[in-house]
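name: query_chain
kind: protein
chains: 1
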Amino acid sequence: MLAMHTAVVASGVVAAGLLAAPPASADAYVRWTYDSRPAGMPATADPARTLDSARATVRKHSGEARVEATVRLAATPQASDDEVHLVLGSVDDTGACVPDADVSAPVDDSATVDIDAAVPSLIQDHPCSYVTVVDPASSTALDRLDGWNDGVVIVDPALPLTVRSGGHHRLPVDRWSYVVVGVELPEHASRLRLTGEHTPGLRARPVVARDLDAGHYRFRLPVQLGVHRRQWLTVHGHAVGPRPGHSTVRIRVVPR
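structure:
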């Protein structure tokens, strides 16, 4: 459930100042917790369109920055066209959070929405953040939680994680199947997360594994092919442990 979307403009935010910026070559991360609801929210009485909690990590790795977030709704939606947006921004003179980056994911048939996407600038450039549930038909924010963080954390050299194609690339069209992703871990990881980037003809759901020893693993990543032509699926692997690691592979997916 990954997507990029237009920024949602909203005012009022709980801003959190960051620590000194890390060196340009250092890997670093910021963890955000979203638990402050501004006045006037939620703008709906439907719990399936209301935020329960949200957490996010913005990582800088090899000069690039990505945001990984887990957002939970107060109830499971039955059918929804809503979207969840995560905004990283800068505080203006009035104290409002002005969006610098806006990433989003659609609400499906689950109360949990996962976001994993690249962000355009370095993590220390975003002193404020919030998440919203948005009705895309009217661009109306239905609920919002503002975030705070504990500052930039500089991490040890990255774990040399390897993610590769593991086969099973011929998929049915317009129904969920899977691709096989191979992972090589050179040391223990407390958590491994695999995500696939969305395209107009391809959707993927994340896979999370915990407490993995060093070794070779194969995982089934749920994928839905939506067109009758070849697509490329970009899969990201993120390992959390004594040394975090990240690896990316592109897998060719063809209809059967």
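note: The radius of gyration is 18 Å.
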